[in-house]
Amino acid sequence: MKRYKVLLLGYSDLAKNRLIKTFINSKVKFSVASKSEKKKIIGAYAQFQSYEDGLRNSLADIVYISLPNALHYKWAKKALNYNYHVIIDKPMCDTMIKTNKLINLAKKKKKFLSKSEFFIHHRQI
């Protein structure tokens, strides 16, 4: 079975407190692209200071986008154009038009595109 590598775009509270622990516990190799985090992130095989640098230079197969909602579409589109499979924190996009554009691009590129539901019931919803 192939072991996939993940590039985590963003270093949100969810990434810090849940995703990275899950990657480490599941023995998933991961790298992180973060504009804000300068300290070494425990468990990451590589760390990038910009999202673009991570997309260009990561050895990952999958990009997990854990950024503010308004940035999901932009960075998912870029990741698909770099030929990554993409997982996005909910919501995938802020409009159905953008969501459909990503779906069509993923189909064209023959890449997996998914929305992550880390919290099924969240107090904000």
What are the salient characteristics of this protein?
alpha/beta; Rossmann fold; 4 helices; 35% helix
Walkthrough of the structure:
- The protein has a single domain, classed as 3-Layer(aba) Sandwich (Rossmann fold), CATH 3.40.50.
- It has helices at 13-25, 51-57, 72-81, 96-109; strands at residues 5-9, 29-33, 46-48, 62-65, 85-89, 113-116.
- The chain has 125 residues and is α/β, with parallel strands linked by helices.
- The chain has 4 helices and 6 strands, in the order βαββαβαβαβ.
- Helix 3 packs parallel to helix 4.
Our measurement of the CA-to-CA distance between the termini, rounded to an integer number of angstroms, reads: 37 Å
How much helicity do the residues have? Answer: 25-40%
Low-confidence stretches are none
Radius of gyration: 14 Å
Q: At the third CATH level, what is the topology name? A: Rossmann fold
CATH 2nd-level architecture: 3-Layer(aba) Sandwich
Strand fraction: 15-25%
Structural class: alpha/beta
Query: Main sheet, how many strands, which sense, barrel?
Result: 6 strands, parallel
**Count of distinct strands:** 6
CATH H-level superfamily title? NAD(P)-binding Rossmann-like Domain
Name of the CATH class? Alpha Beta
